[in-house]
Amino acid sequence: MSSEWKFTAKEIAERTDLFMSGHRACAGCAPATVHRLVLKAIRGPTIATNSTGCMEVTSTIYPFTAWKIPWIHTAFETAAANASGIETALKVLKRKDRIEHEHVDVIAFGGDGGTFDIGIQALSGAVERGHDFLYVLYDNEAYMNTGIQRSGGTPLGAWTTTSPAGRRIPGKPQLKKPIADIMVAHEMPYVATASPAFWTDLLRKVRRGLEVDGPAFLHVIAPCPRGWRSDPSKSIAISRLAVETCTFPLWEATDGEYSLSAPSKVMALRPERKKTVTEYLKMQGRFRHLFKPEFEHVIGRIQETVNKRWHKLLGKCNIS
Amino acid sequence: MTAIHQKGQKVIALNGDEAVAYAVKQCDVDVVAAYPITPQTIIVEKFSEYVHDGEVDTEFICTESEHSALTCCLTAAAVGARTFTATASAGLALMHEILYVTSGCRAPVVMAVANRALSAPINIHCDHSDSMAERDSGWIQLYAENSQEAYDSIIQAFRIAEHLEILLPTLVGLDGFFLSHTLENVAVLPDETVRNFVKQRQFPLVENHDGKMVPFKLDPENPITIGPLDLQDYYFEHKRQQEEGMQKAPEIIRKIHDEFAERSGRTYGNGLVETYGLDDAELVTVCLGSTAGTVKTVVDQLRAKGVKAGLLRIRAFRPLPVQDIVEALRNAKAIAVMDRSCSFGGYGGPVFHEIRHALYDSNLHPPTVDYIYGLGGRDMPQHMIQRIYQDLEKIRITGKIQHPVQFIGLRE
Amino acid sequence: MNPKKKKGWKEIPMAGVCWVPSTSYLTGDWKTYRPVWDSEKCTRCVLCHLFCPDGAITWKAQTNEMIFNYDYCKGCGICEAECPVDAISMKLEGEP
C-alpha cells in the first residue's frame, strides 16, 4: 500500500525546492521535474546520490550545485553501491554515537542506462543485501547524456542513434526490459512505478519507499524532449499518455503483492478509457518512421506487447 | 623479544592475510566492504569471523563485486566512516575506475592488496602487475617485506590516509602466497595501543554552496556536493590539489612510521625506503616486497666474501621518495632494479623507469639495469640473486652494459 | 562569492566540493517564449509550480500569487500546456 501521508498541492508548493533552479537540464526536461518532485516528498534529513547521467551532469556543473541536500556522485554504474556505502556508514556511525540525527534517509537516482544496463549488478547486489534506501529510476528510455543511444530501457521500434530508423531495421528491434518486475523478483519490500503527470501518486510512492524498512525501488517514466523528438511543452502530457495507453501502467508491489494504482485502475475498470498506443507514439518523433506503410506492422507489435504486459499485470493484481 | 614484551605486545603465528585482518580489527574501522579473491580471501574470511563473533564494531558489506566494494568504502568514507577493503589481481583491475574516483573524492580508504598476477592466462600467484598498473591512480602505495610489516603498515596506513594534509587512499601491498599464506611470528600491539595510535577521523573544513565553512563529509546539517561535473576550467586545479597531498605525504609517512616505532620498537628504514648494507656498497639491487628478504640473505653471504653488496628496498612506491632514493644510491657503482611486473613495450619495468628517472637528476649516473623476475609466482631463489650481483660486478669492472633489460628465471 | 572569477588550486575547496548554488546561474536567457500569467483566470491549483522542471514558478501564500521567475524559466511551455484553465499563455520574448 502507498503511504498514509496526506498533503495538499499548496502544502507541497510551500515546501522548499531542494533541487534548485539554475540547473542546466534542457527546457521541458521531465527528469528535472521528477527530481524536484521526489525531493518534495522527503520526510527528514536525507543524503542523495546519482549515477552518472543527464541529471548528475546538469545539476552539478562545477562550481555550481543544484543540490540543497548532501549529495555525492562517483560513477555511472554505482548509484546503488553509493547508497549501500552511505546507508551502512550512517548505521554504524549512529551506533557509535558519531551522528546526531535520529535517522537519515538515502535516495539513489539513476537513469535507465545506469539502472537497466551498466548499474544493474550493483543494484541487484544492494537490494539482495537489504540496504535501507530508495532507488529512483528516472527512465527517459535511452542514453540521453551521450546523445540518445539505445538502452535496455528503450522501447520497441524507437529511433535512437544506435538503433536508427533504417531502411531495413526500423528502430530498436528489442523490447523494453521489465526492470520493475525484475526488482520485484528480488523479493524486496517495495517496488512501484510512477509518472510525474500523476504527481500525488508519485509523491506518496516516494514517501512510502522511504518509510519501508529495507530497499525500495521506484520506476518513474520521464520523457526527454530532446531524445524523444517531442514538443518540450508536452513532456508531462506524454508521461500522462504513457499511463492512459497502459504503455507504462502505474502499480506498486508491497512484499511482492502487486496492486494497481488509481490512475491505472481506471483503465482496468473502464477499459473503454484505455487509449491506443498510436496516440502515444504519434506525439514522439522517435516513432515517426513507424507510421510509414512498410513499418506499420511494428505499431501492431507494440500494441500487442502493451496488451500482453497489461493483461499479465492485471493477473498479478488479481483483476481479471 | 624483550623489547616486544616491554611494550605489552604478544607474538602470535599469523599469515600475512591474518595479520592484515588482525590490524584492521584493532583500528576501530567502521565499514569494511570487500569481495573474495585469491590470495586475499583469508582477510575477508578472518574479518567475517571477527564480525560474527562480535569482536569488532564494524559493518561488513559483502558486495557483489570489487567495483562495488570500493565504491561502498568511498561513499561510506564520504559520510565520515573509517573504511577498509582488500583485493588482488583482477579484483584490483575491476576497481580501476573507482580507484581514481576515490582519490579524486579525497576519500581516505585503506586497502590491502595481496599482490597477484593479472590474467590471461589466469594465474593466482604473486607478481606486482596488479598494483603497478594502478601506480598513477592517486593512491599511496606501501609494499611490505613480511607479515609483520603488513600488520604494522595497515595500522600506519589509516593515519597516513586520514591525515588532513594528505587525505588520499592508501594501499598496502603484500606478496600473494609468499606473505599472504605463509605463517610467521607476528608481534601484535595491545588493542588499546593501536586505538590510541589511530585515533578518530578528523575532517577539514571546506566552503560549501551556502558560503559556510563546513566539515568535509556528507552531513544533512551542513550539506556539501561531492563528485560534480568538472570541466576545463577547474578539473586541472583539482588534480593539482591531489598532487599536493602526494607531495606532502613522504614527510608525514616518515613521521607516522617513527611514531609507530616508538610504540612497537620496529622500524622499516625511514618508513619510505630501507637500506641494507648500503653505506659502502658498490653493487646495489633495488626491489619491493618479500624478495628483499631473500636479497638480504644473499647480501650477507656476499659481504662475508668481501663483496660490497647492498640493497635498497622501496617501501613507499607512491609517493616516490626521490631524494631518499638518490641519497641511498649515491655511492653505487652498478645498480640492478628488480621488477616483478612487465611494462609491455616499455623500456624495462615500472620500478626501473622510476629509479633510472630519479637518478637522472643526480650528478652520478651509475650503470643501471633491470631484471624482470618472478611473474606469475615464479620463485626467485638465492642463486639467481647471486647471478644478478655477478652481473653487476662485471658491469662495475667493464663499465659496459650488455643487456639493460632482461628476464631472469625464465626458460628460453 | 563571484563564480565568474576563476580561482587558483589553493583557493578552491578540495575534492570538487561545489561552492556556488545553481541559483547563481541564470538560465532565463535560454527561452524564446515566456509564460504570461492571467491572475483572473488562475485558480491557484499550483500545477504549474509542480510540473515546472526549473522550479521557476512559485506560489506566494501571503498574496496568493503565482510568481514566475524569468531568471530561470527556460520557456518550455509545460505550464501553459498543463494549466487546466488556460491562465498561462506563451508570448514571444520581446513582445508585450
Please characterize this protein's 3D structure.
The complex is a heterotrimer of chains A (about 325), B (about 400) and C (about 100). In chain A, helix 4 packs parallel to helix 6. Chain A has about 325 residues and is α/β, with parallel strands linked by helices. Chain A has 13 helices and nine strands. In chain A, strands 3-1-4-5-7-6-8-9 form an eight-stranded mixed sheet, sandwiched between helices. Chain A has one domain: Thiamin diphosphate (ThDP)-binding fold, Pyr/PP domains (Rossmann fold), CATH 3.40.50. In chain A, a hairpin with a 2-residue loop joins strand 8 and strand 9. The longest helix of chain A has 21 residues. Chain A is about 40% helix and about 15% strand. Chain B has 13 helices and 18 strands. In chain B, helix 7 links the parallel strand 6 and strand 7. Chain B has two domains: about 220 residues, Thiamin diphosphate (ThDP)-binding fold, Pyr/PP domains (Rossmann fold); about 140 residues, Rossmann fold. The mean pLDDT of chain B is about 95. Chain C contains two helices and five strands. Chain C has a domain of about 60 residues: Alpha-Beta Plaits (2-Layer Sandwich). In chain C, the strands form two sheets. A two-stranded antiparallel ribbon of chain C has the order 2-5. A two-stranded antiparallel sheet of chain C has the order 3-4. Chain C is elongated, with a radius of gyration of 17 Å. With about 100 residues, chain C is an alpha+beta fold. In chain C, a hairpin with a 4-residue loop joins strand 3 and strand 4. Chains in contact: A-B, A-C, B-C. Chains A and B meet through strand 1, strand 2, strand 3, helix 4 and helix 6 of A and strand 3, helix 4, helix 5 and strand 11 of B. Strand 2 of chain A pairs parallel with strand 1 of chain C, so a sheet runs across the interface.
Give a quick summary of the entry.
The complex is a heterotrimer of chains A (320), B (412) and C (96). Chain A has 320 residues and is of the alpha/beta class. Chain A has helices at residues 9-14, 30-40, 54-59, 79-95, 112-117, 120-129, 179-184, 199-211, 225-228, 235-244, 262-269, 277-281, 296-316, and strands at residues 46-50, 64-65, 71-73, 105-111, 134-139, 190-194, 216-221, 251-254, 257-260.
